[in-house]
From TrEMBL:
Family note: Belongs to the glutathione peroxidase family.
Example of a GO MF term: glutathione peroxidase activity
Signal peptide residues on this chain, from the entry's feature table: 1-23
GO BP terms, alphabetized: response to oxidative stress
CDD domains given in the database record: GSH_Peroxidase (cd00340)
Cross-referenced PROSITE patterns: GLUTATHIONE_PEROXID_3
GO cellular component: extracellular region
Keyword Signal: yes
UniProt keyword annotations, A-Z: Oxidoreductase, Peroxidase, Secreted, Signal
Name of the molecule in the record: Glutathione peroxidase
Subcellular compartments: Secreted
InterPro entries for this protein: Glutathione_peroxidase (IPR000889), Thioredoxin-like_sf (IPR036249)
Length: 221
């Protein structure tokens, strides 16, 4: 028994170590205590005009991405759109983009109109095909409860942190390091299944989406 236990522990460690090396994807666990479910959340849309009601996402696989406009990963808007197109009409997968509030601190006058203008400026031919929420905080004291919820399921895939929090607010540093497209994939049961680092391209998440939709066995590795 003890041998089997330690073997299991060894395997678990190995898996974690491999994930650490790749630094791209974390498999989430179900927290023992959850105060709310994914379907309890409601957030205004980017224009603050209508409420995005997460109870509409029941039985769907949802990719939650915190997006930002002025960043090297902004090209991922294209990949996110492509996913929406791929699954268009099937109604069982969707992307939800959450512009982060930290962006607001760089653009004090910003609102939904400005966010969308920013996206147009950086990606002139692009209109997001997915819902964008109003800006939220994803970290720190004022983080949105949705992010507390998502993060309670899985640890960060990031292996190194900037030591000084002041760097966070210096424009050049933000663009390079912190303003990223981290992703959470939520299953049709409302549980967070995977967390991906910003460099993971939307298309690379397809096997996991397919697996969660029960289409076919995911590609390993
Ligand atoms: C946007 O969110 C609403 C939930 O309020 C949902 O009904 C709708 O299908 C979503 N649209 C897209 C394109 O994901
Ligand atoms: C958004 O902000 C800009 C600049 O501060 C302002 O001109 C515009 O009227 C605002 N739009 C809305 C819908 O609040
Ligand atoms: C995205 O969310 C992660 C936490 O999930 C955070 O570390 C990162 O700073 C956020 N980036 C943006 C642009 O909001």
């Amino acid at each position: 028994m003890a041998g089997a236990t330690s073997l299991t522990a060894g395997l678990a460690t190995l898996v974690i170590a491999l994930c650490g090396v790749r630094g791209q994807k974390a498999t989430c666990h179900t927290p023992t205590k959850t105060t709310n479910t994914f379907y309890d959340f409601k957030i205004n849309d980017v224009f603050d005009e209508k409420l995005i009601d997460f109870s509409d996402f029941r039985n769907k696989v949802v990719l939650v991405v915190n997006v930002t406009t002025y960043h090297g990963h902004t090209h991922q808007y294209n990949g996110l759109n492509a996913l929406m197109t791929d699954y268009a009409g099937q109604r069982d997968f969707l992307v939800l983009g959450l512009p982060c509030n930290q962006f607001l601190k760089q653009e004090p006058g910003a609102n939904g109109t400005e966010t969308m203008n920013g996206v147009k400026y950086v990606r002139p031919r692009l209109t997001p095909l997915f819902n964008l929420t109003q800006r939220i905080d994803v970290n720190g004291q004022y983080q949105h409860p949705l992010y507390r919820f998502l993060k309670s399921y899985c640890k960060s895939v990031r292996t190194e942190y900037r030591p000084s929090s002041t760097l966070f607010y210096q424009p050049k540093e933000i663009g390079d390091v912190y303003w990223n497209f981290e992703k959470f994939l939520v299953g049709a049961d409302g549980h967070v299944k995977f967390r991906y680092s910003p460099s993971v391209q939307p298309i690379d998440i397809r096997p996991d989406i397919e697996a969660l939709l029960g289409r076919h066995v995911p590609v390993v590795g």
